[in-house]
Recover the amino acids of this structure.
């Protein structure tokens, strides 16, 4: 078997002295789509922030590997340059930062070279059309005055342009109506690649109706308590999370 594209090894994470992630293990191989589900407070968002290097989230022990190399010693921007991407549950507005300039700068850093403005505008326009984002948004401040659906579309637009090695989407379906969910899901599917890994963090089955995972993991009290195929998400939709709470047993796939 080939080496995992992305691997979390026996990870422990604390926030302000409180342990949140307790010995979590997860491996994603190229081309795989994984879903991480769990109740509120189980540690899903903590995991995503810790992986990306948010200073508030302290790695107590364990490791996070991208293409076999640890990223834990790297600052946030260096992790992004190497190909880690995080789509936020609550994207923030940044007044005064133009969307076009923001995206062009991010692409320049990711690719390690400048991008001809004419070529960038063409690529941006094509990607915006696919996500049904009005091209006028390119000249607005980042997320300022955007609806929840527009913010999430912009997150997927960033992912499409940056072409990450490993993408983590933290509750991208949160706050979306059904039409926006379908558009965002189509955008996620269009970015799928046999060379990329994808981790969907979600509470509900509805996102997984449109973006089909090969693997589903359930997080409870900071550890994976069950792993399986897509049928596990359907079972959770029917039975909820209580039947798994407190098991503390990882079923390896």
């Amino acid at each position: 078997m080939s080496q995992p594209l992305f691997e979390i090894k026996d990870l422990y994470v604390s926030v302000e002295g409180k342990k949140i992630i307790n010995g979590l293990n997860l491996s994603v191989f190229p081309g795989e789509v994984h879903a991480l589900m769990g109740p509120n407070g189980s540690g899903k968002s903590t995991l995503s922030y810790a992986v990306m290097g948010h200073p508030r989230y302290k790695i107590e022990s364990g490791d996070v590997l991208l293409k076999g190399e640890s990223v834990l010693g790297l600052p946030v921007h260096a992790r992004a340059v190497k190909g880690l991407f995080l789509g936020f549950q609550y994207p923030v507005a940044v007044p005064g930062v133009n969307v076009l300039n923001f995206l062009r700068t991010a692409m320049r850093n990711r690719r390690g070279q400048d991008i001809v403005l004419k070529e960038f505008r063409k690529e941006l326009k094509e990607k915006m059309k696919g996500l049904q984002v009005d091209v006028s948004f390119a000249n607005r401040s980042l997320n300022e005055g955007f609806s929840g659906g527009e913010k999430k579309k912009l997150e997927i637009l960033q992912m499409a342009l940056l072409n990450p090695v490993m993408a983590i989407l933290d509750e991208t379906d949160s706050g979306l109506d059904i039409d926006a969910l379908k558009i965002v899901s189509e955008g996620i599917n269009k970015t799928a690649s046999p060379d990329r890994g994808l981790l969907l963090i979600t509470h509900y089955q509805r996102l997984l109706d449109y973006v089909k995972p090969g693997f589903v993991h359930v997080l409870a009290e900071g550890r994976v308590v069950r792993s399986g195929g897509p049928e596990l998400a359907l079972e959770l939709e029917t039975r909820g999370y209580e039947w798994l709470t407190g098991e503390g047993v990882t079923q390896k796939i």
